[in-house]
């Protein structure tokens, strides 16, 4: 697909790069890598090109486009995929997934956060997230938890799905568990730090944000092919399970929150081990290391200077 689209994009990208004259290029999307490498070759500019991979295990083949200066990977599993393709290990940097610093910076205590959110201080909190656009599966999950009368309280985030939000608000009075229903939120770090467990789709960003908050994970679904590796990552490393059916979700919560069980603490410890909360800062430092030193010509000025010298020599003959 990228080779079919590249001819359509190449000239436009060349023109844009010539206008912007970047000192470093960073890609966080696999389908842009091939055309970027091709454009830089055609322009004959030594601009450092860094690829930041956002797949946890089963990386899209376009991530492996040859010709990038360096590759930043989130997990050891992804690093091994690159090494298996013969890439120089020094060009493959295991730094983690970049997430917003708010997930890693100190926040209020769990008790304070729960008080701010109007939650009971001791009752376990289950955070159910349907993504930015919301998911109809949230309704089924909430109904299953309610019918099982689990001793929990719920934080339900419907995102931009206003219909789902209104529907849940209407049905809430029938539920057997206390719940707070929210639409699109900007305080997800606080919600995660207030919770005991998160129920979410298998998006890599949310998974890594949960790990940074030391939050056990229950995956409610995944995009076939694209996110299957994320499920493997969560289960293999002991930070959560896949529970696609309502009864599986109820069972997973019962096992995790059972009084006297050590499972919850085990998953918290595993999340701490896996988390790379400083990944965004480490990646930023790597990017900055490729900038030209102060006073030194950049990748665009260097060629211009060479051309000027060559022109001067021709005129001097």
From TrEMBL:
Domain (Diacylglycerol glucosyltransferase N-terminal): residue spans on this chain: 7-99
The entry's keywords: Glycosyltransferase, Transferase
GO molecular function: hexosyltransferase activity
Subcellular location: Membrane
Pfam families: Glyco_tran_28_C, MGDG_synth
UniProt GO BP: glycolipid biosynthetic process
Domain (Glycosyl transferase family 28 C-terminal): residue spans on this chain: 126-273
GO cellular component, one term: membrane
Gene3D superfamilies: Glycogen Phosphorylase B
Name used for this protein in its record: Galactosyldiacylglycerol synthase
Provenance organism: Thermogemmatispora argillosa
